[in-house]
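FAQ

Q: What does a record look like?
A: Structure on top, sequence underneath. For example:
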């Protein structure tokens, strides 16, 4: 250590107390962690201070199959009857296309069949969700705006007799 002593640092430190982490800050950090864990536990046990969204029972359910054609069109079919519900050209159905890409990526990671149906559910509260029956993933479409909810809600509203 003789090399650094000529800088004056070691010479100035001789006989002095070493710098330690301030105990007050450490105690405050531990107290904050304990308080946070206690508040979370209290909320979970009592329900006070928590927000719960109750969707209620399903009001409408439809299993659909979303496929991409060789011409890059997206075709939505009813899983039970095979009837075509919608067909989106290359420049149409932006949110439906984006959802398909996201779910296909999740299916590839999970190594499940790409042809498995998706489940559209309109809940009693009016919320609409899209679930992947193969991976168990579910997204509530309200998070993406009213127009995007409407893009999928239209598929729920179509009856077996034909397109609306």
């Amino acid at each position: 250590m003789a090399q650094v002593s000529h800088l004056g640092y070691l010479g100035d430190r001789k006989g002095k107390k070493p710098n330690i982490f301030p105990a007050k800050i450490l105690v405050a950090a531990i107290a904050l962690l304990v308080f946070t864990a206690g508040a979370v536990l209290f909320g979970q046990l009592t329900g006070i201070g928590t927000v719960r969204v109750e969707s209620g029972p399903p009001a409408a359910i439809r299993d659909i199959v979303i496929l991409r054609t060789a011409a890059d069109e997206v075709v939505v079919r009813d899983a039970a009857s095979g009837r075509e519900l919608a067909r989106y050209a290359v420049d149409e159905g932006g949110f439906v296309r984006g959802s398909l890409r996201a779910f296909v990526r999740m299916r590839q990671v999970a190594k499940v069949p790409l042809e498995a149906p998706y489940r559209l559910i309109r809940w009693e509260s009016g919320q609409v969700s899209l679930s992947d029956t193969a991976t168990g993933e579910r997204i509530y479409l309200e998070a993406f705006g009213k127009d995007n909810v409407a893009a999928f809600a239209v598929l729920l509203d179509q009856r077996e007799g034909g397109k609306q």
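Q: Is there anything notable about this one?
A: Strands lie at 58-68, 74-78, 84-88, 118-123, 128-132, 138-140.
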